[in-house]
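Quick board copy: two proteins, each given as sequence then tokens.
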Amino acid sequence: MGGWRLRESFRTASGTVRWDRFGEAGGEPVVLLHGTPFSSYVWHEIAPALAAGGREVFVWDMAGYGGSEMYAGQDVSLRAQGEVFARLLAHWGLDRPSVVAHDFGGCVALRAHLLHEARYRRLALVDPVALRPWGSPFFRLVGENSHVFERLPGALHRALVREYVGTASHRGLRPDQLDALVAPWADEEGQAAFYRQIAQADQRYTDEIQGLYPSLRLPVTVCWGTEDTWIPYAKGEELASLIPGARLRPIRDAGHLVPLDAPAALLGEVLGFLGEA
């Protein structure tokens, strides 16, 4: 993934996950969560910028993603990722960090908080997977036939992943960005892992917590790309209406991959949110 490498590791029941930190040790803690089929690379511009303000910023690759371990039979479900995240927070010794979570990472953060007693100071949700129904026709097709897609010739698989990932951006990804996002899925191990995570993407893991959103008692902001074709902007309006005190912040001219489509605009929203009294 270009020059993006996570230096630390943590062993979990779902395999070893890679993580790293930026900024001042002991500074205000902020944790960034990525979505699928991405990695912590989506934060490669935002993490250092957040850390420059005297914060200690943590990033990690979910189990089975990015630089983290991938293996046959691995549990990479949203249920497992929520448990891993709660354990990772304990490993870091963080109590009440601010959390910024994109896509599947939004569900992971919500599950860790609502089901596993992870405590946050603030929660920023960026185009999260949080409300039924979710999953595009393509996503469901792959999930129902993952055993077939796993056997695609490597070149065809890589072309499919590049095309799929590219549709998450409204502005269009630079070649180096697209290469970095596709690289973890490009070899034989990554190909199997790519279809594994789609096969395990079960809506029941958001259904289990959707009814609990009105019980959230912490500052929440919802940022959403106005041109998101993966999860429409209307879902952001619906989600913000379910969470007491939540505000919806539109990110103009951005698709689903807001951290890469509009990093400056998203950073501005996050900084403003973190700085609120």
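And the next:
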Amino acid sequence: MTRVVFLLVPQLHLLDLAGPAQVFSTAADLGHGYEIGYVAEQEDVPSAQGVTLRADTSWPALTADDLVVVPGWRSPTLGGSGALTPDTLQRLAAHHAAGGTVASVCSGADALGRAGLLDGRRCTTHHEVQDELAARYPRASVVPDVLYVVDDRVVTSAGIASGIDLALHLVAVRHGPSAAARIARSMVVYARRNGDERQASAMLRHRAHLVDAVHRVQDLIDTRFTNKLSLSDLSTAAGVSERTLTRRFTAATGLTPLRYQQELRLERAEHLISHGATSESAALAVGFQDARMLRRLRARA
């Protein structure tokens, strides 16, 4: 039996907690032997989403096989937020010193930093606070724009939904990739993502604009990027000429429609390759006729 203890901080984000908790709960249902507990410095813990949670104020006895997870909390900055007593921070440090694993989701990395667990280690957090984390803990090496980082039993993740990826990774390490895949299927989530995948997908990185016609074309490309799409078809969907679409699309996203489609294909192909696919099979799966174009795009990237 491995114990997974979540340390709850006031104003914690529910998904930071619920995502990993669901992974380990599902793993327990599948017979992998996890016992989940929740501790806090007060019995009633308000969440950022308005639901009050109940936790134990006494820590269970932990062994080196056990995991402590600190979910993130709502705050525009890390400084002055996520209040924890020195005794609680010392418990985090002591568990790691005894051979245990300590993990964080989103701003929970700041609690690990205050416990001294980020010094001399690679780590990450949500992209909105990663610069502040680096400034607060200059002895840490903050890795930007990745989903999670593992360094000497200190595991940090980007936040919100990436906590699911972190938990699935830990299950895969202990029980194998097939166990993690089975849990992902049970949870109806996308296949486990690698830690070094970017926090924002290509579909999200180029959506920070207010041009309705371009959004409509992006919606079409997003759902059919593995198909051959002509500029004529895209301009018809947008209700503008091909020249106008190219001009507006490039101004809004920094890419032509073709380059945007290629970026989606490349991102999906990289994911398939990272999970064991060959370049040839990945290229065919995303719509290329062969692997030559994929190799050129990967070399350019």
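Board note added afterward: Residues 65 and 155 are 15 Å apart (CA to CA).
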